[in-house]
Amino acid sequence: MSGKAIISLLFEDGDYKESGDIILMCDQAGFKALLENLVIESRKHIAAQEKQPEFICLECGHKFYSAHAAEAAAFGDGCPSCSGSDIEVA
Asked: How far is the C-alpha of 72 from the C-alpha of 79, rounded, in Å?
C-alpha cells in the first residue's frame, strides 16, 4: 500500500528561523528505511571520546586506565608489558 509521508522541518540558528514541509510518496517500509538512514547519517559525525589514560609506566610507556590497575602494577605484579614498577600519573 502506498501513502504520503509529511516531514516538518524547523531550523533555528540564533535569531534565524526557517521551516518547511517535505512530502514523500512511499509505503510504510520505504518510510521506515528513510528514517533509519537519516538517523545513521546524522550520527556518523559523532565520534566517541577516547578514554584518556590516568597512569603510565615510565619504563615502557604502557598506559593504565584505572587507579586499581596502576596500583597493582606499582605495588605488586609489575607492569604487564615490562614487569616494571615505575608507574606515574599521566
From this structure: 8
